[in-house]
Please model this.
Amino acid sequence: MPVDQKVVAAPELVEAVRSIISEVMLVPRDKVGLDSALIGELGAESIDFIDMVFRIEDVVGHRIHVSRWGTFIEERLPGAELSSAITTTIVIEFAERERARAA
Amino acid sequence: MPVVRERVAITGIGVVTPIGIGAAEFTDALRAGRSGAAAITAFDCTGFDTRIAAAVDDTRFDAGAYVEPRKMVKHMSRSASFAVATAAMARRESGLAASDVDPYRVAVSLGAGGMGPVDLDLLLGQATSAVIASRDQETDELSIPAFARVFRERTNPISMLRGLPNLAAAHVAIQQNARGPNNTITTACSAGTQAIGEGLRAIQRGDADVVFAGGADAMINPVGVLGFSMLGTLSQRNDEPSRASRPFDAGRDGFVIGEGAAMLVLERESVARARGARVLAELAGYGCTCDAYRITDERPDAEAAVRAMRNCLGDAGVDMSEVGYINAHGTGTKMNDVTETHAVRTLFGDGRTLPPMSSTKSMIGHLLAGAGAAELAATVLAMNAGFLPPTINHEVPDPDCPIDCVPNVARETRVDMALSNSFGFGGQNACLLIRRW
Model:
């Protein structure tokens, strides 16, 4: 699926990803808004995204090599300032694409 | 041109121990002669020869309270979380502000041990279960491809970072913005002492003005307990945990494994003076040697241990007669206590009165890589509070350990100078000297 295609995430996936971000960043779930900037606001670093991808595997039901996250970000957010551009919504979109890939 | 060596001040102390969290609580417990040993509850040790340990009370210790952002905690081993917490406590007590010192002049020197996937969740939940799950049921042989598949499924990739030996010191640096030299010393039971000694050297040779120096360990896990137990070093007094650690007592049968950390803020005298710091003591001397003999046996003549203490006194330029107290390595194994007594008697020579020499391990257990740091902290805190920490559980003196071990009750007295000893498996001997400022 090309990355410019619109992805509509199921509500349970949205909630699952919010829970994952909450667990990985050790912040209360209600602090994880759809527009929260993971790096700029929540303090994420590289290994936190590795942790998220590992946990997303359980949600989508298959292995995801961590390099897929990097590729996704490069294609989805080319040239963007990542500290503000990587939001909860972006992670949800990644999870949705991974789920679609399995299906 | 004569070289005038600047003095090094201890300006902050942080401790996480089985008998107290924070310097004040630890000091009170030392004075009261409290034991931190109890039955192991961290895991089911049914069938173990040793089922007791001196653990840090998790209901009273929250690593997240010392870490920013909080999520950093999950990247830390238990041992690293102790190190980071004690560094934060020591920093707070020192009053050292960010503007007081160039971050590139702030170093970390940490004694660490218990490397690898030692935390329970890693050990049991991931690596071991992957091995079990990947055995061929017919041949009972381990299939590496099957292991890889199971391990990959169950092991969070970031958890591997917790086992790296240098990461505890890195976490301390991240939390304290310490951008100078960052060193990890891994000489087992003498690591904490050597880390503090090497921190002293970092200041003396001009590499740093401030050093976070100490040690941390956390090996109350099945492999740690079984490993030391199989080597015959742990007390098996399972029915009386608080009476199990009894250094210099004739009935001693090994050490009680402990966990925890201590960190000191070491500071160049001129820097401490410039900011008007309150100084707890001078770190005045350091000596270290190696037995170069056997792996766990100590040299019966204790020659290398004697030399470590002698070097330490020489480093400080003091005579042994000025030493008012010795904090012993004092593990409570048959061999250590006899050899250490012999070493100290040799150092002082025939006919000279030895200063009191007690073992804090009787109360806190053996903190392994954290031991030397916790014991130096105990020595400084007790000196400043005006007492000598006791050796508890002292009932029947061992004729082979003819010393004044400050039996059972803390002694209210003033000393101005004290030694602290550590001797590690592998023969590493280290000794520090503190002096009233």
Summary: The mean pLDDT of chain A is 91. Chain A touches chain B at residues 24-27, 42-43, 47-48, 50-51, 54-55, 63, 66 (CB under 8 Å). Residues 11-102 of chain A form a domain with the Non-ribosomal Peptide Synthetase Peptidyl Carrier Protein; Chain A fold (CATH 1.10.1200.10).
